[in-house]
C-alpha cells in the first residue's frame, strides 16, 4: 500500500542550485530594476562599488514607494505570496532573491516607507543553514545606506539593494577600476535597450544612471545617464509604406500586437547596429509590459541572413500569455508555442502584406542599398605569390563593387609575447620575425614565403582586420590567439 513521506530539501545543495539559475550579470541587474519600476520609482542609480580589498559590490538605489517591514519580509522569503497584478514587470516574486544570489555572496535590502526604515540580509550560507535571514535594526539600516550611497539617505521612501562580493565575475588581468568601467559599459548597453521605452517616457519616464564608487578615495565618478537605445529609432523608413501594423488571427488576435518595421539601408546609428551587430538583431522584438524581453532572432521560424538585416518586428505580448510563451524567472527570451508561431506567420497588414511578403520587401530594401566604404572587402595584396593574390581577388571580391581594401602581410620584429600584430590604419598584418626561421625550417625566406600560414592567419583574423572598431571581446580574442600561436610555434622543429 502506498504511503506519503515528507522529504525536505538538502539545503546546502538547494543553495547551489538556486545560485545557478542561469542569469547573466546584465539580466540580473535588470531584474532588480524591474522591481524599482514596479515601485513607481522615477529615478534609479546602479553603483559599482570598489572595496579597499579590491572586491566589487553592486548597489541599486531607487526612490520608489518602498516597503514596510512585513512586505520586505515577504520580498525576502522564497515562496511567499506575490502580487496578482499582471501589469507588474516582476513575475514570480523570485527575481530579487535569485538574481541577487546568482551574482553575489550576500544580498542586503534596506527600504523605507511611511517614515519607517527596515532592512534584511541573506548571508552567504543562509539558505544552507536552514533559510536563515538576518534582520537589521534601524541604526544598521541607516549606516548601510550612508556608507553605500551617502547622497541618497532614503529620507522619505525608496529601496537600496546591495550585492556583496560579485563572485561570478572574472576580471583576468584588469585592475579593479578597469574592470568596473567595463562592467559599466556592459550595463549601459543592456539597460539602454531593455528599458528604452521607459527611458524615453513610455508609458512613464524613468531615469537610470550608473557610476563607480571607489572606497579608497571615498568618492564616486561622474554618473552615466543612460539614454534610450531604441531598436526602431530611425528617422525615415527603408520602405515608405512602413511601419505597418500586422494583425494576428485566432485566439491571439487581441493579445498580440505586431508592428512591422524596415530599417533604412546603410544606417550607421547605434540604434541599428546594436551590441552584437545588426545582422544578429534582425527578427522579433518581444515586449512584456513595455519591457523588452528579446531583442532579435526568428525563434525558429526562419534563418537569419544578411539580406534580412533590415527586418525588425515589434511584438507586444499580453502578460497573461507568460505561460504560453514559456517566460521564465530570468525574463530573457520567448519560446513560441506552435499555434502562436503559425499565427505570426499568417499575420497580415490591412493591405494584405503577409509575413513572407514583408520579408521580401525588407530584402529588396537591403539589395538596393549602396555598398559603404566600411563594407568593402579586405583582400591580401602583399606578402603572397602574385598568382595567389590574383586568385584571392577573384574569390573574395563582392559582386556589388569592384573596389576593395588592400592588406599587406609581412614580417617585423615584435615583442616575443606576440605571434602577430595588426596595423589597422596602415593596412598591415605583421608576423613576428623571431619565429620566421623556425617556421621556415631553415629554408631561405622571401617576401612571398609561407603562403598557407599567411592565408590561414588572414582567415582567422578577418573579422578583426575588417572591423571599424576593436571591442573588448575582440581584443581578448586576439590576445588568446596570440598566446596559442606563440605556444604552438615552440613545437615547430628547429633547423640544425
Using brief descriptors, characterize the structure shown:
single chain; 496 residues; 9-stranded mixed beta sheet; 14 helices; 21% strand; 5-stranded mixed beta sheet; alpha+beta; 30% helix
Chart the SSEs and their pairings.
Layout: H1 11-19, H2 25-38, E1 43-50, E2 56-62, H3 69-76, H4 95-101, E3 104-113, E4 116-122, E5 134-136, H5 138-148, E6 158-166, H6 176-194, H7 196-199, E7 207-214, E8 219-220, E9 224-225, E10 244-246, E11 256-262, H8 270-273, E12 283-288, E13 291-295, E14 311-317, H9 338-346, H10 355-367, E15 378-382, H11 386-396, E16 405-412, E17 420-423, E18 428-432, H12 436-440, H13 451-466, H14 472-489
Parallel strand pairs: 1-7, 12-14, 15-16, 16-18
Antiparallel strand pairs: 1-2, 2-6, 3-4, 3-6, 4-5, 7-8, 7-9, 10-11, 11-14, 12-13, 17-18
Helix pairs in contact: 2-4, 2-6
Entry summary:
With 496 residues, the chain is of the alpha+beta class. Helix content is 30%, strand content 21%.
Q: What is the straight-line distance between the termini?
A: 82 Å
* Helix vs. strand class: alpha+beta
The mean pLDDT is 88
Measured by DSSP, the beta-strand proportion falls in 15-25%
| Helix content class | 25-40%
Q: Rg, please? A: 27 Å
- Output the number of helix runs: 14
How many strands?
18
Low-confidence stretches: none
Main pleated sheet: 9 strands, mixed
Overall geometry comes to globular
Can you describe what's shown?
The chain has 14 helices and 18 strands. The chain is of the alpha+beta class and 496 residues long. The strands form 3 sheets. Strands 1, 2, 3, 4, 5, 6, 7, 8 and 9 form a 9-stranded mixed β-sheet that branches. Strands 10-11-14-12-13 form a 5-stranded mixed β-sheet. Helix 2 (25-38) packs antiparallel against helix 4 (95-101) and helix 2 packs across helix 6. The longest helix has 19 residues, at 176-194. It is globular. It starts with 10 loop residues before the first helix and ends in a 7-residue tail after the last helix.
Amino acid at each position: 500500500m502506498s504511503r506519503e513521506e515528507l522529504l525536505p530539501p538538502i539545503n546546502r545543495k538547494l543553495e547551489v542550485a538556486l545560485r545557478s539559475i542561469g542569469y547573466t550579470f546584465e539580466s540580473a541587474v535588470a531584474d532588480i530594476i524591474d522591481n524599482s519600476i514596479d515601485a513607481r520609482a522615477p529615478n534609479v542609480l546602479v553603483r559599482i562599488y570598489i572595496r579597499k580589498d579590491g572586491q566589487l559590490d553592486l548597489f541599486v538605489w531607487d526612490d520608489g514607494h518602498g516597503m514596510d517591514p512585513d512586505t520586505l519580509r515577504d520580498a525576502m522569503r522564497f515562496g511567499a505570496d506575490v502580487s496578482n497584478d499582471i501589469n507588474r514587470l516582476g513575475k514570480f516574486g523570485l527575481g530579487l532573491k535569485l538574481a541577487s544570489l546568482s551574482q553575489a555572496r550576500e544580498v542586503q535590502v534596506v527600504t523605507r516607507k511611511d517614515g519607517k526604515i527596515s532592512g534584511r540580509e541573506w548571508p552567504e550560507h543562509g539558505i544552507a543553514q536552514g533559510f536563515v535571514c538576518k534582520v537589521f535594526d534601524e541604526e544598521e539600516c541607516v549606516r548601510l545606506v550612508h556608507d553605500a550611497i551617502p547622497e541618497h539617505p532614503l529620507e522619505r521612501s525608496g529601496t537600496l539593494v546591495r550585492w556583496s562580493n560579485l563572485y561570478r565575475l572574472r576580471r583576468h588581468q584588469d585592475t579593479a577600476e578597469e574592470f568596473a568601467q567595463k562592467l559599466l559599459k556592459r550595463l549601459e548597453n543592456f539597460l539602454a535597450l531593455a528599458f528604452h521605452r521607459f527611458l524615453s517616457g513610455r508609458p512613464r519616464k524613468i531615469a537610470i544612471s550608473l557610476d563607480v564608487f571607489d572606497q579608497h578615495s571615498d568618492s564616486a565618478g561622474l554618473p552615466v545617464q543612460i539614454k534610450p537605445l531604441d531598436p526602431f529609432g530611425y528617422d525615415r523608413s527603408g520602405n515608405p509604406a512602413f511601419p505597418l501594423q500586422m494583425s494576428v488571427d485566432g485566439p491571439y488576435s487581441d493579445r498580440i500586437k505586431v508592428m512591422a518595421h524596415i530599417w533604412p539601408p546603410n544606417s550607421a546609428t547605434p540604434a541599428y547596429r546594436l551590441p552584437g551587430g545588426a545582422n544578429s538583431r534582425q527578427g522579433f522584438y518581444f515586449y512584456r509590459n513595455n519591457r523588452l524581453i528579446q531583442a532579435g532572432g526568428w525563434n525558429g521560424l526562419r534563418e537569419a541572413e544578411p539580406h534580412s538585416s533590415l527586418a525588425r518586428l515589434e511584438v507586444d505580448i499580453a502578460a497573461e500569455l507568460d505561460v504560453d510563451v514559456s517566460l521564465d524567472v530570468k525574463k530573457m527570451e520567448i519560446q513560441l508555442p506552435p499555434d502562436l508561431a503559425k499565427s505570426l506567420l499568417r499575420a497580415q497588414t490591412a493591405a494584405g502584406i503577409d509575413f513572407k511578403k514583408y520579408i521580401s520587401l525588407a530584402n529588396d530594401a537591403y539589395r538596393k542599398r549602396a555598398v559603404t566604404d566600411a563594407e568593402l572587402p579586405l583582400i591580401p595584396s602583399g606578402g603572397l605569390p602574385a598568382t595567389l593574390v590574383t586568385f584571392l581577388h577573384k574569390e573574395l571580391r563582392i559582386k556589388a563593387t569592384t573596389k576593395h581594401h588592400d592588406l599587406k602581410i609581412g614580417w617585423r620584429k615584435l615583442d616575443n609575447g606576440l605571434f602577430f600584430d595588426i596595423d589597422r590604419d596602415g593596412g598591415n598584418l605583421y608576423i613576428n620575425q623571431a619565429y620566421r626561421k623556425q617556421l621556415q625550417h631553415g629554408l631561405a625566406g622571401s617576401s612571398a614565403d609561407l603562403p598557407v600560414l599567411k592565408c590561414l592567419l588572414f582567415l582567422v583574423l578577418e573579422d578583426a582586420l575588417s572591423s571599424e572598431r576593436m571591442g573588448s571581446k575582440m581584443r581578448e580574442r586576439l590576445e588568446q590567439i596570440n598566446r596559442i600561436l606563440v605556444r604552438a610555434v615552440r613545437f615547430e622543429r628547429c633547423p640544425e
